[in-house]
Write a structure and sequence with these properties.
Arc Repressor Mutant, subunit A; transcription; 2 domains; transcription regulation; mainly alpha; DNA-binding; DNA-binding transcription factor activity
């Protein structure tokens, strides 16, 4: 017996504020966000949040969220974690860093704890960091 008649197949969340932000502002903010988060590697800073980014850009977190969602099709945290995981993959396979513990790798790439590192790593790669290291290390 079906208790609820809910169909999420065609459901797409569309926040109202996304339609209020002009394409020009989206483009301008995208360039600034990428410059700060990617080029300046702020994704490695555990304390650097969307709120701090918004303050630095003199805007609000809703606009930051909208721009990241529109331009990269993911939320802010997922977008930042994508860069962290790419760095972690490089560290895990680099011979110079083979003695690093997982907690150290997690810390170096910007995660605040090992659990969130493992969860994000698995989400993006489909394997644990340890398995990735074992499968991809130069022998």
């Amino acid at each position: 017996m079906v208790k609820y008649n809910v169909n999420f197949d065609n459901y797409k969340k569309d926040a109202a504020y996304r339609s209020l932000i002009s394409p020009k502002l989206v483009s301008e903010l995208k360039v600034k966000i990428v410059r700060i988060i990617v080029k300046k590697k702020k994704y490695k800073d555990k304390e650097y949040s969307a709120k701090r980014l918004a303050e630095e850009l003199e805007t609000n977190t809703r606009y930051i969220s909208a721009v990241v969602n529109i331009c990269f099709n993911m939320n802010y945290t997922s977008w930042v974690n994508k860069y962290r995981i790419e760095d972690a993959k490089a560290l895990l396979t680099d011979k110079k860093h083979k003695k690093l513990k997982m907690e150290e790798v997690s810390d170096l790439v910007g995660f605040s704890n090992r659990q969130s590192f493992y969860a994000a790593f698995y989400k993006y790669t489909g394997v644990t960091p340890r398995k990735y290291k074992l499968d991809n290390s130069e022998k």
